[in-house]
């Protein structure tokens, strides 16, 4: 039986999309509060992921992940 993906792997999958993900998109997919999602992003940084933050033309902050160090 296939195992259900963890919330962390779901976050990484969303951040690896070409345009990354906003906090609102992550909240909708995971169901966590904003501060918990930001803490998860910090946790990914501590694990060696390069988490990149950028604002789009509408002023929405989007996050994407580069390679692990």
Description of the structure:
This protein is an alpha+beta fold and 69 residues long. Helices cover 43% and strands 25% of the residues. The chain is built from three helices and three strands. The chain has helices spanning 7-15, 23-30, 34-46; strands spanning 21-22, 49-55, 61-68. A three-stranded antiparallel β-sheet has the order 1-3-2. The protein is globular and about 45 Å long.
Which helices and strands, and how do they pair?
Layout: H1 7-15, E1 21-22, H2 23-30, H3 34-46, E2 49-55, E3 61-68
Antiparallel strand pairs: 1-3, 2-3
User: What is the H/E order?
Assistant: HEHHEE
Instruction: Please give the share of residues in helix.
Output: 40-55%
Q: Let me know the largest β-sheet.
A: 3 strands, antiparallel
- End-to-end CA span: 32 Å
**Strand order, biggest sheet?**
1-3-2
* Contiguous helical run count: 3
Derived structural class: alpha+beta
Basic shape: globular
- Report mean pLDDT, rounded to a whole number: 92
**How many β-strands, per DSSP?**
3
Kindly list the characteristics that best describe this protein.
43% helix, three-stranded antiparallel sheet, alpha+beta, 69 residues
Brief overview, please?
The model has no long low-confidence stretch (mean pLDDT 92). The chain has helices at 7-15, 23-30, 34-46, and strands at 21-22, 49-55, 61-68. It has a 3-stranded antiparallel beta sheet with strand order 1-3-2.
